[in-house]
Fold Ribose-5-phosphate isomerase A.
Amino acid sequence: MESKRVAAEKAVEYIRDGMVVGLGTGSTAYWAIQKLGKKIKGGLSIKAVATSINSENLAKELGIPLISISEAEEMDITIDGADEVDNEWNLIKGGGGALLREKIVASFSKELIIVVDESKKVSRLGKYPLPVEIVKFGHELTQKKLGKLGCIPKLRVVDNNPFITDNGNYIIDCDFGSIDQPKDLHSVINMIPGVVDNGLFIKIATKVIVGYRDGSILEL
Ligand SMILES: O=C[C@H](O)[C@H](O)[C@H](O)COP(=O)(O)O
């Protein structure tokens, strides 16, 4: 928890008055939103765009002024977590199911600061099963097609029911073991009809901040 908090709080130092800020999703982004809430109480003036209903609710509780992505058009900085980060800053995201909105917000952000604890830094992506958001219609067939790409695809289930994303879709967690060519895999997966998007974020991050258990941080 400490490692996530220190990384997230460091990222918030880059936020300045007047910025439009993308709020990521998950247990690391949580700390960035908390810190931002405190700064707003201290007089910081920003507008925020949330990447999930959870983050939106948290921001509302903390009094962070929210606008929709359509009103924002562009974010100055987005702070978000990741499930894995490789040496080229390619990411796996979507462990919390928010990958689609996260990718949309990230793609309209001038800067994407990724905040992670040390366990997320890997030399090669793929140990963490890659989340793929798919539409419900024909989901069993889409899942089979994903399996043909060389992964073990599993429908994400919560409390015996399929997990539903904020966009009303399902998530298939695809265990590839190791991903040699993330950019190619990203395109191949998104070509499958029924796939909405996948959790590979290819070279979108502009900064990575890693937090360690002893409270130290490394900015990459
Ligand atoms: O869908 C969720 C997001 O991509 C999260 O940013 C990612 O799963 C990392 O979450 P956490 O900081 O909780 O490990």
The pocket of ribose-5-phosphate is lined by residues 24-29, 80-83, 93-99, 102 (CB under 6 Å). The CA atoms of residues 170 and 197 lie 11 Å apart. The chain has two domains: 2-121+202-214, 130-198.
